[in-house]
Amino acid sequence: MWDDWNLRNAADPIYGSTNPLLGADFPGHPGAPGPYPPPVEGSGATAPPSHLMDKVSGYEGISTGGNDGRYLPPPPPYPGSGPGDAAPRPNVQWNIPSITEETAKHAFVQYAESKCCYKSAPAKEMVFRDFQPFNTYRYRLETFTESRSSEWKSVPYNGEVIHAYGTAPAPLPWDIAVKVPTLFKDGEEKVKVPYTSSVKPCQTCLSMGQTICQKCHGSGRVQCWVCNGVGRRMNDRCSHCNGMGNERCTTCHGNGRVTCTGCNGKRQLLFYIELKVTWKNNAQVFLADKTSAFPSDLFKKVTGKQLFTDEQFLVYPLMTFPDASINQASQIAIQQHNTQFASTSRILRQRHTIELIPLTKVDYIWKDISYNYFVYGVENLVFTEQYPAKCCCSVM
Ligand SMILES: [Zn+2]
Ligand SMILES: [Zn+2]
Ligand SMILES: [Zn+2]
Predict the structure, then answer these.
(1) Is residue 128 part of a domain?
(2) Which of 370 and 61 is assigned the larger pLDDT?
(3) C-alpha 74: how far from its chain's center?
(4) What is the pLDDT of residues 209-223, one digit of tens each?
(5) I want to staple 353 with a disulfide (CB 3.0 to 4.6 A). Which of 16, 85, 124, 309 is the partner?
């Protein structure tokens, strides 16, 4: 066991008495395996080397886990980057096509047939009275951001080659090149920051790789559960423990010690700063609502016809769209996003779109009574609060 330890130390260039990384935390080479220690609990056992805490330039004050890591403010935006000049093209046709009677009727019949307790007769026999368009616009701004945070990590050290602290300056958090996976999609990546690594003897087992078994306190045997340690049941010898009153500890298989959970038996821990890169697509949606009779929440279920889209590093607020509320929503949303994200993350890309969502109110007559329904979205979904012929199929 200890021979391995000696061999690895000799072969390992970062480990040895002259290694500055080990500092005062290294207790020196043990002459022989002593008594195995009870496991040491608490954060101190896995704390990074004290002489490195707050010493890595650009990573001062970061925590040792347990939360999301310390967030690292981004550097100023790239020089020369600013909003592009892309207002909607003036020749875009903003006017709205209305649906045909045939489409409206087809949608209504399908709607009635999809409901088990609606009779389809009204949808088939009704007479159209009026069509009113209430088409509306949906504006969506998406801001794709990247944020970075870091914290100290420790893992069992397997003897691999490391970028040791002190052999070169650690790159600053925002200087580490990380490839953006997909634009406008949430994602996350974790990176080991180069030149922040160091190896430290495991404090949980005092670098022995094993700790005393807490179940049998190192004896390897526990009280027999059948005779409760007496060795007899009634007047007979306990057959489970052969009258010994104890049995082999199953936790440590009778060894009296178990593999250290702190270092997984490796005796040493590798400490390093982990950089977490998070990509997030932040979307803000505004609906130019024109009618109160239709529940606007339903618009979330449908798509519209895309009238305008623009994608740039930073998009330019819309100014000339015929609906003033959309221009205003665009200006407010862009300003909000730019203020909100500039200080906490780096904006990588923005995209905004205007969709036209068809909404038509259809008035009709069935058996001399007036009713109405709405057809909405490119999908031609139907909404109505008053269907003339409902039965209740569940009560039969
Ligand atoms: Zn027994
Ligand atoms: Zn045990
Ligand atoms: Zn350990």
Answers:
(1) yes
(2) 370
(3) 20
(4) 999 999 999 999 999
(5) 309
What's the Rg (C-alpha) of the chain?
Answer: 35
The ligand whose atoms approach the alpha carbon of 231 most closely is 1
pLDDT tens digits for range 234-272: 889 999 999 999 999 999 999 999 999 999 999 999 999
Domain count, the chain: 1
What Å distances lie between residue 212 and 29, 30, 39, 123, 209, CA to CA?
21, 18, 7, 79, 11
- The verdict on residue 13 lying in a domain is no
What is the residue-wise DSSP string for 167-197?
Answer: SSPPPPGGGS-----STTS-EEEEEEPTT-B
Instruction: Domain of residue 330: give its range.
Output: 101-144+278-383
> Residue 133 falls within a domain, yes or no?
yes
- Taking CA atoms, 82 is separated from 50, 57, 165, 349, in Å, by 44, 30, 38, 11
Which amino acid is it at 293?
A
371 vs 61, which has greater pLDDT? Answer: 371
Q: Are 142 and 351 in contact (CB under 8 A)?
A: yes
Whole-number Å distance, alpha carbon 191 to ligand 3 midpoint, is 25
Pairing of strands 346-357, 305-312: antiparallel
Ligand nearest to the CA of 253: 2
- Residue 257 alpha carbon to ligand 1 centre in Å: 23
Domain contains 374: yes
- Ligand 1 (ion): residues with CB under 5 Å are 224, 226-227, 238, 240-241
Ligand showing the shortest atom-to-Cα distance for residue 208: 3
3-state secondary structure of 259: strand
Torsion angles phi and psi, residue 103, rounded to 5: -65, -45
